[in-house]
Design a protein that fits this description.
Monomer. InterPro entries: Aur-like, Kinase-like_dom_sf, Prot_kinase_dom, Protein_kinase_ATP_BS, Ser/Thr_kinase_AS. The protein is of the alpha+beta class and 404 residues long. Helix content is 28%, strand content 27%. The protein has a nine-stranded mixed β-sheet with strand order 8-7-6-9-13-14-12-11-10, with helices on both faces. A five-stranded antiparallel β-sheet has the order 1-5-4-3-2. Strands 15-21 form a two-stranded antiparallel ribbon. The longest helix has 20 residues, at 225-244.
Length: 404
């Protein structure tokens, strides 16, 4: 199978090690010996010591010093078993290179570690699909079970035919994988493995049996104001974390916040497919109507503060139970969204109102960064006796789109 990710990873496999790559030596995942062919003509297998880290596979010389390294992130990992006159060979192909382990047990250890940073090829052998639990415009999410541990995961499946037809879908997939492997925060979904089969790419992530924030709001009659403040603190702390790493989500909404327990302030942010990295201003319009910052809809250049506006919409909803730009069609929602005329709701009072309205400033320069909100009096001095009632409304659900 030719990996669809070979277009991403077209560089030479090995690079000579130098002190400039010293950072690659940190976060060791595994250290062990492997054999590989000395050259194609002789077929002779030569044993080397290898260090696998979170970013590189490093080959050591005879003295145990780093000699050369490879970046395995976008390389397809394919285990194999060979019968030879000298006995069985247990190995794996990484990209276009073959490596041989000393035993089946050693191979299992290498594969388990390599799967954390490579593109695995054994989805059918490792997981059983239980049922479909979600569907979007470009992907389907399944509940799957690890056949060894019996642990359940969510598997986001994207068909390779779609990735080949739509460059934007492939770009979004690459971006989501890259970003999720970089991030490590208690309020951001964990990506465990990426698999590729002949037909699909699967992202193996956490499974959230408690559903998303949209469903939680429909189910609950009220939240305490204390929980709303805790939710705001966690959300803005997560945004401060990703923004400090020059990552912008661009599609924050109720459906992209998954609840991880019975508490209404425990959640994880998902779906980084529309995210971007960098400090440069952007112009592409994308996201979900009703959550998009006005400057994006006005075709102006924008930065990370578009996420702050989306967070403001979310906070308005969980405090009042209503959407600030509620309407019966996507076009009307976008029109209200762009004008940014926020309805003054009776459940927005005092410091909570000031907090939310600062998030929802129409001009990005008037919208503070996430870190500036974490010491807001509404969060730090919340009275536990306050109660915020949710009003389940029939607000229109609109999917994420790239707006032409």
């Amino acid at each position: 199978m030719v990996s669809i990710f070979s277009y991403v990873d077209s560089s030479k496999f090995w690079m000579k090690y130098s002190p400039a790559y010293e950072s690659c030596l940190s976060q060791t995942l595994y250290l062990g010996t492997l054999k590989r062919q000395k050259n194609q003509k002789s077929g002779q297998l030569v044993k080397h010591l290898y260090q696998l880290t979170s970013t590189a596979l490093i080959e050591m010389d005879d003295k145990g010093n780093p000699y050369k390294l490879a970046y395995p992130h976008w390389k397809l990992l394919d285990p194999f078993y060979e019968e030879t006159s000298d006995g069985p060979n247990f190995g794996f192909r990484l990209g276009r290179k073959d490596f041989y382990a000393e035993s089946s047990e050693s191979l299992d250890r290498w594969i388990e570690c390599l799967k954390k940073i490579c593109i695995a090829s054994t989805f059918e052998e490792d997981f059983a699909i239980i049922k479909e639990i979600g569907k979007g415009s470009s992907s389907t999410v399944y509940l799957v079970e690890d056949l060894d541990t019996r642990k359940q995961y969510a598997a986001k499946c994207v068909h390779k035919s779609l990735l080949k037809e739509k460059k934007s879908s492939f770009r979004n997939l690459i971006q989501e994988i890259k970003v999720l492997y970089e991030l490590d925060h208690p309020n951001i979904v964990d990506l465990y493995y990426v698999y590729e089969t002949s037909d699909c790419v699967y992202m193996i992530m956490e499974y959230f049996p408690h559903g998303d924030l949209y469903k939680r709001i429909l189910q609950k009659k009220y939240f305490s104001e204390e929980d709303c403040a805790k939710f705001a603190s966690a959300l803005l702390d997560a945004l401060d974390y990703i923004h400090s790493r020059h990552i912008v989500h661009r599609d924050l909404k109720l459906e992209n916040i998954m609840m991880i327990g019975e508490n209404d302030y425990e959640f994880k942010i998902i779906d980084f497919g529309l995210s971007y990295e960098g400090i440069q201003m952007q112009t592409e319009r994308c996201g979900s109507p009703g959550y998009i910052a006005p400057e994006m809809l006005r075709k102006c250049k924008y930065n990370h503060r578009v996420d702050i506006f989306s967070a403001g919409v979310i906070m308005y909803i969980i405090i009042t139970g209503q959407h600030p730009f509620n309407a019966n069609s996507a076009s009307k929602i976008l029109s209200k969204n762009m004008k940014c005329k926020i309805k003054d709701h009776f459940m927005l009072k005092d410091r909570a109102k000031e907090f939310v309205m600062n998030l929802l400033q129409a001009l990005p320069q008037d919208r503070p960064d996430a870190i500036c909100f974490l010491d807001h009096p509404w969060i730090s001095n919340m009275k536990k006796t306050s109660v915020c009632h949710f009003i389940a409304t029939s607000s229109t659900r609109v999917g994420s789109v790239v707006i032409e």
